[in-house]
Each structure stands twice: as structure tokens, then as C-alpha cells.
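[09:14] KT: can someone run the structure on this one? pasting the chain below
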Amino acid sequence: MVYQKSKIINTLDNIILFSLYALIFFFPVSKALIEVTSTIAIICFIIKKLLRRDGLPSTSLNLPIFIYLAVCFVSVFTSSNFQISSRIFWGKVIQEILFFFVVADILSDERRMRNFIYIFFLSAAIVGIDGIYQYFTHKDLLRNRPDLGIPRIYASFGTPNDFGAYLITLLPFLIVSFFVKWRARIFSYLHPALFLLAFTCLVLSVSRGAWLGFISSVLFLGVWIPSVAVFFIILVLLFLFIKPFFHPAVSERLGNLFNFFAPEFTNDAGSIERKIFWAAGWKMFIARPWIGLGLGTFMFNFKEYVASDYLYGPSYAHNCYLQMLTENGIIGLVSFLLIPAVFFYAGIKLMRVREKVFFWYILLASLAAVLGYSVQMFVDTNIYSLDLGMLFWVLLGIGAAAMNNIRPETVTPK
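[09:31] RB: done, C-alpha cells below
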């Protein structure tokens, strides 16, 4: 009986692991597969925990996550639309949080984490090639996405900004990989080419939010690995040297890199729309500043607060933090910000180690990726999409798994 139970648990564990590998491989091409694989992993995870009579994995993020979960739950009952808020709570918030615990639990050793990173890189190489192909042909190979008629690439993603968000979570792992000894020798030869491919795609996505996120990530990495800071300086000088040869769209965006926050916006359509969305979002926030209008109700209330001369349909706020303020109020935003705040506090505390072991670099990469993602959240909709929202919690799960694998004896004594 005990043997049979152990066999079932091992089978469930393998299914969870395979589902996670499948999710990260198919992440750029199919939201349906993200739903299917994450749901399978969560169901098997729950069954495994029930059979083992085990609780959720212990991580430094458990408390802030439960606080955020409680705030979201209350928001359902104070919402301007109970049906929308309850659907978002059970269909998105619960799913993403459970998947965080799945990732933190299943990537329990170096072999599994290495395999996960290999698959992540393989998938990124395929979508990166698709992006370059699209640049020259204006066609997407993987999803047959329609040509948007703009000089920007987006590969299999819906928009260039989504593609940029994916790339800025990938690039920190590629950068720290230069300092990790990989067992697959072929990766040592292909790794520089993959970095160049991903970086080129980031530039050609012409996503200012993603560029700002990448700059933030590299600056953070440079604090811990000085050679990365030197690399970044060289990269900036190279950019200045070759800027006259850039596509006009890239040059224009570089010149307007910080115009998201300037008093006056440019004639760029995206900037003009953001100004409209942010104005509407601010009105929503003022209406119910402490508890918000309800989880997931930004678009439901959009028409009531947007300027009367705006002729198009409802949209996201294109500023995740502002949207959180409108939906969950100040209390909701603070409860969410507790999660990355604790993540960085606990992660940086653990970075004080004598030996830079494998999981030290994985933790560093996850911290840098979350930082870049969080910066882009100021000007885009990342966390509100199905795929990129899930990616945020996957990154947190990777970081939590890395923290649990950095042994206490490696921490530098005070």
C-alpha cells in the first residue's frame, strides 16, 4: 500500500514537471496550452499534497502572497461588478498563485532547474528566429500573425510590447549564463549567438517600456557582477556609434525613450492613447481611492470615466500599478507591492554568499527579470494578460526555488 502510494506520488511529480517544461516551451505560441499545462500541473500538485498530507512549500513570499490574496477576495464583495471580480479571482488570481507554489516546489534540485532553463532557451531561440524572419518578410512563421503595418517585430506574440516583455525576462538568464558552467557543451557555443539573437529582437521590437526594463535589469546585474556593468557601458557606446544606421522607427523611439513621463507627449499614437487611459484611470482611482472599483473591473467602468470624445472601446490602463489602484485601491496596490518588496529583500539578503554557486546565479537572474518586468509594468499591461501574467509568477517561483536551494552554510557570517 505504501509502495503504491509512493509510486502514484512519483507519477504525479513527473506529470507536474513535464507540464512545467511544456508550458515554458510553448509559452510564446499558445495561450490555450498555457491554460492546459498550468491546470494539469495545479491539479496534480493538489492531489500530490493531499496524498502526502503536506502543506504548501515554505517560501519567503508566503505571507505577502496570502495578504494579497485576502485583499483580492474582499475586493470581490466590494466590487462594482461581482460577476467579473469573482471570475477574475477564481480564474486568474488563484490559478497564478497556485502555479507559483507549483514552480517553487517542483524545481527542487539543480538538474530540474537546468533542464527548465535549457527548454526556456530552446523555445526562445525558435521565437527569436521567427522574429528576425518577420523583420525581413513581415510574416510570422509560428502563429501566422497578421502584419500590423508597423516597422516593429512581435514574432508569435500579439504585440511588440508583449514580445519585449518576454525578452526582458529571458535576457537576465542569458547574461548570468555566461558565468555558469553548463553541462551541455554545445550550449557553450550556441549561447553567445542566442544572446545576440534575443538582444537584436528586443531592439527591433521598438518597445520603449521593454528597453527601460532591460536597462534596469542590466544595471542591477552590474551591481553584483562588475563585468556586466563594463559590458553595459560598451553596449551604450556601441549604440551611440551606430545610431545613424538605425531604422528611423528605432531612432525615433530612442530619442523619445523617456517621454512616457514627460509633461508633454509626442505625436506617437501609443503615447497619446496612454495619456487618455491614464486620465480615465486617475478619475476611477479618485472615485474610490482606498478599496477601488473591484477586481478586474477597469474595462467595465472605462466608458464612464474616459473623455467623452474618445470614440473607441474600453482598454486596459497601460500602467499596471494605476490599474491596480483603480480596481483594488491603495490597500490593494500596497498588498501587491509587498510581494516584490519581500522578494527583493529576501533575495538580496541571500545574495551575501561566499561562493557563487549555480542557484546564486539563478536567483540573481530571477531578481533582475522581475525588476525589468516591474519597470515595464509602468507603461504596459503585462500582468493583466494570461501569458505574461503567468510569467510573472513563474519568475517569482524560480526565485523562491533558488532561495530554498541556497544552503544556509553558504551565507557569509556577520
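[09:33] KT: thanks! The chain has a mean pLDDT of 87.
[09:34] RB: yep, looked fine to me
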